[in-house]
Amino acid sequence: MTELLPDAVAALPATPLADAVIEVVRPVESQSVFNHSVRSYLFARLVADRLAVFDYDDDLLFAACVMHDLGVATDGAHQERFEVEGAERAAGFLTQQGISTANADQVWQAIALHTSPGIAEHRGELCVLLRAGVAVDFGGPIGAEHVEAITDEQAATIHAAYPRLNMVRSLTDAIVAQAAKNPTKNAPVPSVPADFLRERAADGETRLERASRSSRWGN
């Protein structure tokens, strides 16, 4: 496994596409959700290193991770479940940037399937790495198999650069708000948005929020 130096752990790609992705995402997401998206990329890179996966396209991984919650962006249409809406926005943006339809479709799949365990893992490296990066950022409640592979030093560097800012609650709030605008289309049963809507209505918080309190990173 390649050992990443501390100053490289939180480094982002210095490419025109990465810059364009940040420019489109940062203004329309809360700082908490934006930081979560960036951390998901940084953790996904560490997972790829752990799994000895070196042939992925880093620009596409960055785009998939940083845009994976674009479906809850404040300027969105909010007319489909957030995973699909985010996937559509991301793929459309990438084709506008000159990315091939095939590569944009890889990003579409990774984003659309990132809440689908048992499916994403069978749809290629980009799907695997995005889901793993997101799971690691939750610190254990979901997909805990890679969390313990992250060293305390790596985690501290990433969290110092991109603080959590009550991420689990903030992201859940955004998903619930998006789902509630049109539950039939935005929260079909079964789905993560449907679960969140039901659990918030019944208990005031979701099982994910409760579980996060005992996760490695907390909320």
TrEMBL record:
Gene3D superfamilies: Hypothetical protein af1432. This is HD domain-containing protein. InterPro entries: HD/PDEase_dom (IPR003607), HD_domain (IPR006674). Residues 33-121 form the HD domain. It comes from Amycolatopsis silviterrae. It holds the Pfam family HD.
